[in-house]
Amino acid sequence: MKKIIIGVFTLAALASCKDSEEKNTEKDTALNLNYPKTKKVDTVTDYFGTKVNDPYRWLEDDRSEETEEWVKAENKVTFGYLDKIPFKDDLKKRLSEIWNYEKIGAPFKEGDYTYFSKNDGLQNQYVIYRRKNENDKPEVFLDPNKFSEDGTTSLSGLSFSDNGKMAAYSISEGGSDWRKVIVLDTETKEVAEDTLKDIKFSGISWKGNEGFFYSSYEKPEGSELSAKTDQHRLFYHKIGTPQSEDKMIFGGTPEQKHRYVGGSVSEDNKYLFISARNSTSGGKLFMMDLTKKNPELNTIIDNEDTDTYVIQNDGSKLYIVTNLDAPNQRIVTVDAANPSPENWEDFIPETKNVLSPSTGGGYFFTEYMVDAVSQVKQYDYEGNLVREIELPGLGSAGGFGAKKDADTLYYSFTNYVTPGTIYKYDIKEGTSEVYNKPNINFNPDNYESRQVFYKSKDGTKIPMIITAKKDIELNGKNPTILYGYGGFNISLTPSFSTANAVWLEQGGVYAVPNLRGGGEYGREWHDAGTKMQKQNVFDDFIAAAEYLIENNYTSKDYLAIRGGSNGGLLVGATMTQRPDLMKVALPAVGVMDMLRYHTFTAGAGWAYDYGTSEDSKEMFDYLYNYSPVHNVKEGTKYPATLITTGDHDDRVVPAHSFKFAAELQEKQAGDAPVLIRIETKAGHGAGKPTSMIIDEYADIFGFTLYNMGFEQLPSENTELKD
To answer: Which residues, at least 6 apart from 351, have a Cβ–Cβ distance to it below 8 Å?
Structure first.
């Protein structure tokens, strides 16, 4: 198995390429690229005395015929351009070839059956299979490919009762975050009762075999895809009763008003733990003793200053994961009778590396991020280190979870050149064996990843993993995708992408920096990229691009920047601040209007990272200064831009991308195309069918290479356009 090469290195600059040579600077007029005329409406908002024009606000109305017609007109131009890229079909063919391999998920035991997911290769959705004995032929339990004819209805959650005789699964239609929940008798596979509706941002947590807890909002007034939702509530559904009789457990009152509420039942069914948050970071934590007839709500954490949750219990002894007084997280213990922080005792103390723990088979498994690479240790219930688990290489390991009585568990391992492989782990013996290694038409031995550390604008050291062919020539002409996120405490750790494998085959470079705002180095690293320090994230990304150029991996003529959601904001801010730095920009489902993001769906919950334009004049000025929609300037030459979004995205509403596209198309001074690709019956990304994903990547890679000057795929050793 190919190992990642980790280490700081600096490669001497080789012969520089000619800046003006072999560039595609002229828009291909044969493609007849004429943007639709987007009307402007005189809409002005006053922010602390500053009047801000918002001429394209009408595009926020996702139910209007005008918006629908605008989407159709933009897609006509976009697909007219993309369909004429000479090698797009070759890319789609190769993507389909490499994607067409059997993919199997880790097995898990429920009742009398062992369940697992599998995709034969190009199926739009994974199928859930099961069998009673290891030698039995698996039978289909759930086939989401039959949920809808076009594959756009996906399975988004599956949970079983304690005895495994009942299952509840949730579905997403068209990529929406709104869910329906269907209850099955697992023996007959027949629907057991009416479908539960209007459920959002929710898990399904069973209380024994009687029923389950779930969360939802009141149905918003206006558009369910864009209207604000900020009153989340926790319900209990008893099997055999209508949803209208479900009992509200938490929320629904001014004292209990929170944007995100979740409920989780302990494995022994003794406790219900309730999290209540108003933002994506920090929240309150409560508990109920379910053994009592009328359980009271008891408080564990009564403020939103920390991220804290209960990971396990041993009778009345609670094991709690927290970043209270521990930015990199620790595990503490406390008795359920007095669970407040003053009674906590350290179980696994904080270290210099970020902790992400799980449990299984009577043990704790602590995954640490060491410069974004996994290290896993096993502890017993007394807090004693049992062993460090030997991983197959340097990369990302995950999935060390199982029930308390399990003898084995399954974990996955991957990195940028190693397809995800599942290992079976003997919990007592500490030995691993390959359970499933994908048979993919890609040779990882031809590629390698190297980790470098570079300095950002303020001198902060930032890690970045660069993946490319082993024999890459550092001549400044390698097509390169720089991918980033930098927010919400999310860590970008090494993982294999089937689509990116095709990019690497083209001689492409794929570079991923671990920007501030992420979780790679704990809460302090996260906070360093939030609110009034958000510019740090953009500076880190710009410095990554400059590193790649200075070290001749690429040049500005062969560099593309890419990111989605908060990463879409990253791309939008970077390309408006430094339009000279890259040839192509690929913002996906991005947060582009930083003055109004909090007025849509649950967007106000992102305020921990962003702040809002209503907080103060200082916060408004800061947001206004980098908001992509508001920083597109007349007379500026912007890079070739392909904006991607989905018409059913109710997390980052597509109006963000609509308005950004309209601004760019109006003000672009250069010849590079500015296109928006709007997928219909698609949301923020989860559950997107395979066919749709392949089409999208063929368009993205095709657009990128074509605007870097390629007339044919680089793997065919063709010359660049004049």
So the answer is: 328, 368
The model's pTM: 0.91
Among residues 275, 565, 613, 627, the one annotated as catalytic is 565
How far apart are the C-alpha atoms of 332 and 285, rounded to whole Å?
15
Is 684 among the residues known to form the active site? yes
Distance CA 552, CA 436 (A): 38
DSSP per position, 110-132: ETTEEEEEEE-SS-SSPEEEEES
Contacts of 591 (CB under 8 A, 6+ apart): 565, 566, 568, 569, 597, 603, 606, 610, 652, 656
Residues 232, 237, 648, 684: which is the catalytic one? 684
b or e along 23-52 (b: 16 or more beta carbons within 10 Å of the residue's beta carbon)? bbeebbeeeebebbebeeeeeeeebeeeeb
Beta-bridge partner residues of 153: 173
Return phi, psi of residue 179, to 5°.
-125, 160
Non-local (6+) Cβ contacts of 133 within 8 A are: none
565 among known catalytic residues: yes
pLDDT along the chain (722 residues), means of 10: 31 30 36 83 95 96 90 95 96 96 95 96 94 94 91 91 97 85 96 92 95 89 65 94 96 86 97 94 96 94 96 97 97 97 98 97 97 96 96 94 96 96 97 96 96 98 98 97 97 96 97 98 97 98 98 98 97 98 97 95 90 97 98 97 84 90 96 93 69 95 98 71 36
> Do the Cβ atoms of 490 and 516 come closer than 8 Å?
no
Amino acid at 495: S
Beta bridge partners of 159: 168
